[in-house]
Recover the amino acids of this structure.
């Protein structure tokens, strides 16, 4: 193909667009930043290779490459979900936690392990001893978690002048045409509130 003409290689461009759409959707859904693009692309490709496709008569690319071996997908997990990685006994002290909170970011190729992001150490751990919580997403929960009502400060849209233990406002005397026909002093008495 000629340089600068990607349209000459339409099949590869179509596949790249498919994988990029899957990766972008995964990142946006779970709330992870674009810095995790490599993990999202790797995971999207792994899932695609284990998914039946129409062009292979509803077989998976994995089956085509491995002479009919049907892939096991029971280990698949939701990308970006909360996970608890077991800490090996030789890497913990007696009173340390037995597991640490991590985020699932992909599969380790060539093994039956998972790639797990630890936000405390800003590193990726590899492990197969993991418990997943597929209903919770740490990156998304952090951004959209509602503040409890007890911690929210109520700000009115208009000024509020009422204060606790404030005496009741004196009642104004109703204006009547018959009352306003008198002298100036009578009019002042009408406009001045009377406290009872």
């Amino acid at each position: 193909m000629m340089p600068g003409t990607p349209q000459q290689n339409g099949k590869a461009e179509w596949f790249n667009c498919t994988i990029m759409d899957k990766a972008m959707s995964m990142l946006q859904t779970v709330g992870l930043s674009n810095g995790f693009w490599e993990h999202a692309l790797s995971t999207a490709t792994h899932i695609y290779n284990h998914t039946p496709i129409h062009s292979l008569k509803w077989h998976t690319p994995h089956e085509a490459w491995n002479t009919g071996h049907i892939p096991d997908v029971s280990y698949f997990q939701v990308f970006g979900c909360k996970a608890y990685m077991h800490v090996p006994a030789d890497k913990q002290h007696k009173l340390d936690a037995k597991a640490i909170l991590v985020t699932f970011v992909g599969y380790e190729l060539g093994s039956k392990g998972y790639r797990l992001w630890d936000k405390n150490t800003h590193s990726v751990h590899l492990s197969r001893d993991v418990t997943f919580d597929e209903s919770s997403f740490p990156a998304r929960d952090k951004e959209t978690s509602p503040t409890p009502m007890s911690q929210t400060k109520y700000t009115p849209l208009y000024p509020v002048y009422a204060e606790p233990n404030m005496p009741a406002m004196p009642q104004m005397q109703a204006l009547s045409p018959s009352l306003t026909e008198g002298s100036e002093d009578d009019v002042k008495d009408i406009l001045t509130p009377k406290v009872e």
Notes: The CA atoms of residues 178 and 187 lie 11 Å apart. Confidence is low (pLDDT under 50) at residues 154-162. Strands lie at 82-86, 99-108, 113-118, 123-127, 130-133.
